[in-house]
Write a structure and sequence with these properties.
Rossmann fold; alpha/beta; 7 helices; eight-stranded mixed β-sheet; 32% helix; two-stranded antiparallel ribbon; 23% strand; 189 residues; 10 strands; globular; single chain
Length: 189
């Protein structure tokens, strides 16, 4: 059990010293959506957006869930009272992209591959961090893929991050299990 648990703990510690990370008991793999909510919140710390991603200096972070919401109230609870880079957080949910305001982080919960790819294509050149958990998410054009089972695994699409003008800190790359860079997926661990 130690060999399976250790990488998960190391990944969380490396992502680390994340402001406001919930207690480790709450990040147990028994509730993967709690883990995902904590990571969504902390991406605002470890990714840099271009200035035009925010209409004003006081505009809050918009975290948007597109498709069937897997979080319930977990996301709001995780974000309540938190700030990152002087900005608070707001959560929006919708079934279609055109129903959402401008978002900095979009979690794509669509199970339908074609629908997910169509949204990723529309967001491709925008300063939006796209996050999902579908197996082919990185190859479809998503920026960050979650896999939460006995441990947390992140995959990062650096090609898409560059197109979207997002800068992903090295710390996130260090804890990633795979990175897509220049069209090639490299296994990191």
């Amino acid at each position: 059990m130690r060999t399976l648990f250790a990488p998960w703990v190391i990944a969380l510690l490396c992502m680390l010293h994340l402001p406001g990370l919930v207690a480790s008991q709450e990040l147990a793999p028994a509730n993967p959506n709690r883990v995902k909510a904590a990571f969504l919140r902390n991406f605002a710390h470890y990714v840099r957006w271009p200035a035009e991603a925010f209409p004003h200096s006081s505009t809050p972070w918009h975290i948007c869930v597109l498709g069937p919401d897997p979080f319930g109230d977990i996301l709001e609870t995780s974000l309540q009272g938190r700030k990152e880079q002087g900005r608070s957080f707001e959560v929006f949910r919708a079934e279609a992209l055109d129903q959402l305001p401008s978002c900095q982080i979009v979690f794509l919960a669509y199970k339908d591959d074609a629908r997910r790819r169509a949204v990723l294509d529309k967001l491709k050149n925008k300063p939006v961090l796209t996050v999902g958990d579908a197996p082919e998410f990185l190859r479809e054009g998503g920026t960050i893929r979650f896999q939460v089972d006995d441990r947390v695994r992140l995959g990062i699409n650096l090609d898409q991050a560059r197109v979207a003008e997002l800068v992903i800190q090295t710390r996130m790359l260090e804890v990633s299990s795979e990175v897509l860079d220049n069209g090639v997926v490299r296994k990191m661990r």
